[in-house]
Amino acid sequence: MGELLREWRERRRLSQLELSIQADISTRHLSFVETGRSRPSSEMIVRLTEQLDVPLRERNQVLLAGGYAPAYPETSLTAPEMTTVREMVRRVLAGHEPYPALVADRHWNLMEANTGIALFTEGCAAGLLEPPVNVLRLSLHPDGMAPRIVNLAEWRAHILGRLHRQATTTADPKLFEMHEELSGYPGGEATTGPGGEPVPNPIMVPLRYRYGERELSFFSTTAVFGTPLDVTLAELAIESFFPADPETAEFLGDRRVTGR
Q1: Residue 243 vs residues 214, 221, 232, 247: alpha-carbon distances, Å
Q2: Which PROSITE patterns does the UniProt entry name for this protein (predicted)?
């Protein structure tokens, strides 16, 4: 448990003094906790992991390592307890139509989507659309959306940079594996940061997408639940795409009105 706490503290680039001040404990006590000389209460572990912004799933792992039961449940999205969440998410997705929107888990597996997302999946290989559909793989795979992304190198840099930051923040080995896989897909060279991670456009990266003879342009936003106490809920993300130019907005509006 102490080793895990130390790893998270170092990952957040905090000294023992800085963390002890934030958590309102003595540096000596924190040192004893990290070295195993002191066994903290479950409340203390939760307090420290909160200050370190440790994801809920990983907080449970630290608690288990300390000999305590997990503090945060992990409820399936299909469970009866999640009925309200499912209904709310589906209302959000439906309300965003005709623009594309989807819900993904922490590994970017597709959980829900509205009808507008068909604009992106049309023309993708059937194998990539078999559940569980991975949104990022579908985006950059040469048999997926990639051949129709006009600014593929730019979009690829954005996706890889975002994935690298998420993997670094959560220390999730599956995300690092996914980053390695997606980095191997063709799509142009990207500028890299000091850690080798791709650096996207610092302002905003549009998704310029070829649909038939048209070029559509989108920007995206990501929404997460603000105060989750459930692991599943904490890991859900709603990705919504908006038209980035009047031509795209007009085209999608025509699709909505005429049914084309």
Answers
A1: 13, 11, 30, 8
A2: HTH_CROC1
Give residue 95's Cα distance to chain centre.
22
At 152, which CATH number?
A: 3.30.450.180
User: CA 145, CA 16: separation in Å to the nearest integer?
Assistant: 46
Contact (CB, 8 A) for 188 and 152? yes
Helix axes 56-65, 2-11, angle to 10 degrees: 150
The two structure tokens encoding residue 253: 């509006």
Does residue 130 share a domain with residue 51? Answer: no
Task: Give the tens place of pLDDT for each residue, 120-157.
Answer: 999 999 999 999 999 999 999 999 999 999 999 999 99
Tokens 């795209």 correspond to: 248
CATH number of the domain bearing residue 57: 1.10.260.40
CA-CA distances (angstroms) from residue 77 to 87, 104, 172, 236, 255?
11, 11, 21, 10, 31
Q: Verify that 85 and 24 share a domain, yes or no.
A: no
* Confidence check: pLDDT of 258 > 50: no
CA distance 176 to 196: 13
With respect to residue 75, please indicate whether it lies within any of the assigned structural domains: no
pTM assigned to the model: 0.84
Residues 49 and 164 in one domain: no
Q: Are residues 235 and 138 in the same domain?
A: yes
Domain contains 168: yes
The residues pairing with 241 across neighbouring beta strands, listed in sequence order, are 220
Phi, psi of 238 (to 5 degrees): -100, 115
* List of residues 6+ apart from 210 with CB closer than 8 A: 148, 149, 150, 216
Q: Is 74 within a domain? A: no
